[in-house]
Design brief:
This protein is α/β, with parallel strands linked by helices. The protein has 5 helices and 13 strands. The strands form 4 sheets. A 7-stranded mixed sheet has the order 4-1-5-6-13-12-11, with helices on both faces. It has a two-stranded antiparallel sheet with strand order 2-3. A two-stranded antiparallel sheet has the order 7-10. A hairpin with a 2-residue loop joins strand 11 and strand 12. Helix 2 crosses helix 5. The longest helix is centred in the C-terminal third of the chain and has 15 residues.
Length: 261
């Protein structure tokens, strides 16, 4: 009877979904480090950060990761293999230009080397650019080049006035988007691809989202910061029937599946 109970318990455990440690998602606060003065006149970090709940923040994306059981971190220092230890997904968004920061931290060769080692060992890297007027592309592209990618100076999905249809992309049937059918992403660059890089989403013949396998790891490149609060959680025009709220979950789940168990 004891053996039967033991076998039943083992069978139940083996049938349960794999429950490992919580996956850690680290957002770069070093290459993107914008500050402004708050209502009290004090300088504070803003723009594409987990804690920011207004339209410029990533609080909705952070919530999507937490909902899937992940832990959130931020990295204020330069990425090194030591600083990235324990990080499963590392996200770099919109590196600063001098217009955005008086002393921007550019992505330097030593940074490229450290991030490359992180990916090769099994890390998941996310690179999110912007249109060239609002992101520091030359140094960002030294990193992208390691994975067969290049963010261009071209402007796509440009929206003039209220003509939001220019930012519309249909993604129904795209395996990357399990639930979203129609997304909105405006004023983006494009991504030139070579080597291991392949397009996940194209619009008007150019790559907007791409991926590459590198060593044991995975790279995802998106031509815009895109998933920040302004474009999620019901902030888009309701009559557009956009699925960005679904897309944020699709992207989150795809990234977590790339993490090596």
């Amino acid at each position: 009877m004891k053996n039967l109970l033991k076998l039943s318990a083992l069978a139940a455990i083996s049938a349960m979904p794999f429950m490992g440690k919580a996956q850690t998602v680290t957002l770069d606060y070093y290459f993107n480090h914008e500050v402004h003065k708050n209502a009290a006149g004090q300088e504070e970090r803003f723009h594409y950060i987990w804690e920011e709940k207004d339209l410029n923040g990533y609080s909705n994306w952070g919530d999507a990761f937490v909902k899937e059981g992940a832990k959130l971190k931020s990295l204020d220092a330069a990425p090194t293999t030591a600083n990235l230890k324990g990080t499963d997904i590392y996200i770099i968004v919109d590196p600063d230009t001098k217009k955005e920061s008086p002393n921007p931290n550019y992505i330097m060769p030593k940074d490229v080397e450290q991030i490359e080692q992180y990916v090769k060992a099994g890390g998941v890297l996310v690179m999110m650019a912007n249109d060239s007027a609002n992101v520091e592309l030359p140094h960002f592209n030294t990193l992208a080049a390691k994975f067969g990618m290049h963010f261009s100076d071209e402007l796509h999905n440009h929206v003039l006035g209220n003509k939001i249809e220019s930012g519309t992309m249909m993604v129904e049937g795209n395996p990357f988007f399990k639930t979203a059918k129609k997304i909105y992403m405006k004023d983006v660059c494009s991504i030139d691809l070579s080597g291991p890089a392949t397009a996940i989403l194209k619009n008007e013949g150019v790559a907007i989202i791409a991926t590459a396998k590198y060593g044991k790891g995975t790279v995802l490149a998106i031509a815009d910061p895109w998933l920040y609060n302004e474009y999620t959680n019901g902030h888009l025009p309701a009559d557009g029937h956009y699925d960005n709220d679904k897309a944020i979950n699709d992207v989150t789940q795809w990234l977590l599946k790339q993490v090596k168990k």
